[in-house]
Structures are given as structure tokens and as C-alpha cells.
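Quick one: co-fold with 6-O-phosphono-alpha-D-glucopyranose.
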Amino acid sequence: MCGIIGYIGNKNIVPLLLNGLKKLEYRGYDSAGICIVSNNRLHLVKKKGEISQLAKNPELNEINGNIGIAHTRWATHGEPNKINAHPHFDCKKEIAIVHNGIIENYHALKELLEKEGHKIVSDTDSEIVAHLVEKFYSGNLENAVIKALKCVEGAFGLAIINNSEEKIIVARRGSPLIIGIGKNEMFVASDVAAILNHTKKVIYLHDNEIAVITKQDYSIKNLEGKQIDKKICEIKWTVDQIEKGGFKHFMLKEIFEQSNVIKNTLRGRIKDSKIKLTLNLNTNLINRIIITACGTSWHAALIGKHIIEKIAEIPVEVDYASEFRYRNPIIKENDLIIAISQSGETADTIAAVKEAKSKRTKTISIINVVGSTIAREVDSGVYLHAGPEIGVASTKAFTCQIVSLLLLALFIRQEKGLRLDKKILQELSILPKKIKQVLKKSDEIRKVAEKFKDSKNFLYLGRGINFPVALEGALKLKEISYIHAEGYPAAEMKHGPIALIDENMPVVFVSPKDHTYEKILNNMEEIKARKGRIIAVINEEDEKLNKVAEDIFRVPKTRAELSPIINIISLQLLAYHIADLKGIDVDKPRNLAKSVTVE
Ligand code: G6P
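Sure, here it is.
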């Protein structure tokens, strides 16, 4: 949510910052700006709209320098326009800041600063920080920032420069920030994607840390002024992974990557029919599991409940992180909290983990981004190894989350001394092949998308472990095509949504051949009787449902625990093709951001 990049060094700074912003665009894209120090002056260029709009600005051709910061915005306070775009200045235009997060006490600070004569020009909470730093500045930017941050409540990832000191000051509380280390050059960014083609050596800043970055060096302290030694981490991601690789959109590339990345999730974790996970857990002591997450990760959690209860034989509750954190949840000594998050930076999920930790519960995470906040907060965890996910609508992270939940369930069962079903391990090993078979249907699915792309509403129905697949299918469609879609348990449909069925309503059924099959067939007949238009995801050998449905996507049969993976892929493709046919920029759906780092 909002992207920051900063650079200090001798490279051509404008293209470097613009390219970095481009890589961060999935974090927000309603306005963008750059500020560069040259000849003891701050040169600021901002623009409403996407980074491509900013890049067209001729003023950028005239600026050069060795220090600069840039930002792509996802609006929280103040509408997306040029004035509210970052960077923001102080009154004298000698200090510039870019900010991610929310300054919660900004009304009070604004009032105070205005009384002292500061002229605040934007509607943002962020601009306040520039004026606070100005208020405390007396020749040392770092000291002024420390004093300013003592007044600030809320979350921030900040990069700050001024016209006279050759340094960038960065500070973090709640919003991710990394320092990239180069030779005679340094980078700051909210995400490794922005700097990966320059360096793979990074330092993750933790909450309440502040760093002073010069061309050759960096020094990190906490906000109390205590010097901190930090580990330099080597990023494993490659530059190719953050390029589109010939696909029209990142989302499509990531859908197609699923057969491969699932192999990465599995790699080294099944050996001689044993599950190898490095988890700090006494499985015999777990009485109950609570899984907490947001968005697509929450849907994976719902699937995880089915898998864990069946395999590990432990009751599971699933809670939205945003609800869990404020409910004062009853957590007992032998509960285990699992946080699921692609980014590891979702503000509500971080807060849920902190809430659990405050009650001294064991916490583990299922995360994609190595070194992210949640991964660091928990006792131990499972990384997805899905590679960078850039498309705003999550796809490959979802399927890798399900695989990880299955591994976790099997691991708990094994550690409890219960027998593992070898057939499920065999099925896992052929899952990538089966995924490829679904991906081959992309063109076929596009034809169905063409037929339904102008529909105003969609209903998605599924049962049991595939009910969350219906929720996720509906979420994918609304996120990127802006068509209203609802997911429902197929049987529950009779208690309300059935009133919506007419000849204009496409109803997508997720209907594998499992114990719910005959019931789903009945539900389909109920829709058909009311002239609803049925699209069904069915198994290859199914010769019944194809007679009821108007359109079918045939997918290979697999074990119930793995069927959500096989089924969701055709629905990801359906949503993608509908959105693409409608001419929507699938990777930048309106109002959404990849990583929601504010509450
Ligand atoms: C945002 C994204 C979703 C994602 C959700 C949770 O809403 O647009 O795709 O599922 O955040 O993100 P996380 O990184 O915690 O999985």
C-alpha cells in the first residue's frame, strides 16, 4: 500500500527512481512523484494518475542529482490529486518526505502546526511530518526526524531528505522499509522488487528504527538513540521473476506459474514419506487452532480448517484478522494461532499476531515474503516459496497456501504419532501435472468469458471444502472485472440468493465428484428450473452435470483436500479473461492495493 523508493549514488537518478516506482506500482497507483536534490535545491515533480503519467513530464528531463526519493500512492487521507501526491514539502521547501501508513493524530498536529504558522497545503496526514521535521530542524536532519517522530502516533514508513545534507533518513513503524546496499550507492524501498535489479543485499528495518543513509554507509538506531547492528540478508528472488515474461499481465503469468511454484512449496518437505517442516511446536499439546488472515488468505484459511480438522484431528476456527484483533478473543494456553499472509505485511494480520502474542499463545505463520514483519513476529513458520506475486489479485499465493496448510496438517498428524495416508503424498506429487491440464483450458475458458462478460451479477456456489473456492472465485471476479459477484454455500442459496435467479444470472458451480456431488446436482436443478445460466467446474469423467450446465470446465479428479487447488485455477482464468475482455488493466484494479499496510 503506497510504494517508496529512494536512491543515493552516482547513477542516472530519474530513470532509476521511475523504474523502481514501476516495480512498486502494484502497491498503489493513483498518483506519483519524485523529489531530487540538486545544487542545494529540492526539485519536485508530482502527477495525478499512474507512473506512466509522471514519466511523461518534460520537467524530469531537466533534473539530475545524487539523492532522490519517490512515491506511488494509494490514497488514505485526501483524494488522489496532484497536491495530495507525495513527496511533500515543509514551508521553506527545504525538506521533502514520502510516507506510507497513517498518522493517526494528524488533526491535533495540524492544528498545532498551523497555530505556529505552518502553511499546510494538502489534505494528507503525511504532509504533517515534513512540517514537524521543519519545526525541530536546527542543522541536523536525523535529530529533527527523531524529535518529530516522538510526536507522531500511528504507522509510518518514511524516507526524508533535505536540501543541504547528503543523506536519506528512513524510519519505520508498521509500514515495511528496506535498505538496499550497493557499491558506492544505497537504496531504500518499501519492497525488494523496486531495487532487485541493482542489489540483492538488503537490511530489513524493524519497527521504531531509524537509519541514516549516505552513499557509502548506513547507521541504524532505535528511536531512543541506541545503535543497532543489523544482519544483511541476501535476496533469493531473480529479476526475471519480477518481469512479465511474455505474458500480457502479471496476473496471467502468476496463474500459469502455479504448476511450478507448487513444486517449490513442496521441495524438500516430503522425504521417505515423512513431512519435514521446521516448526517450533509440541503438537501433542495443541487443543485448538485459530487461523487468522485477510482477503484471499482468509479463503485459504477456510480451506485449511477442512484440511486440518480432517487430517490433524484438531478443531479449527477461522477469523478475519481485522475482527480477531479487536474482539478480545478468548485464547487458551494450548491454542495455536496460525497467521496466513502472502505479503506478511497486512496491518490487520500483524495486529492479530501481536494480540495473540500478548496472550502468550504459540504463533506460526504461512507467508510468502521472506523476512516480512509477520514472519519475524511469529515463533516459527512455513514459507510458500511462490516467488514474487505482483498481480494485485492473489492467485499463486492462494494455491501455495493450501499446499502449505496440507503439509502442516500432515506434519501435525505425523508428530502426534498417527499414521499418514501415503496416497495423499502420491497425489501431491502429481498435482503440478494436473494443474497443467487445467491451464491448457485457458482458451476454452476465454470463450465462456466472452459470453458472460457483460453480465451485471454472478453467483458462485460450492459445498464443503469447495465453498471457500466459490468465495474466492467470486472475489477474483469482483476485484478485477468490477462485476458484482457473491459466493455462497450451494445449499444455503435456497435461503435468499435464489430470489435473484433469472435468465440473466450466471451461476458458477464448483462441483467435483465428492460426497457432496448428488446434493450439488439437486442445487443445479433448482437453478435451472428458474432459468439461471449454469457454468460448472466438473471432473473429467462426469457425465451427469454436463447435461444440466450450459457451460462446463472439465478438470482432473483429485483428492478432496487438493480439489480446491484444481478448481480455483479455472475460476482465476474465468475472472482474468472476463476482465481482460472488458479492457480493464487487470494488474491495477481500481481502488485496490496488493499489500494493505493500513487498518
Ligand atoms: C489485499 C490484496 C489481496 C490479499 C489481501 C491479504 O486486499 O489485494 O489480494 O489477499 O490483501 O493480503 P496478504 O498479503 O495478507 O495475504
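If it helps, The chain is about 35% helix and 25% strand.
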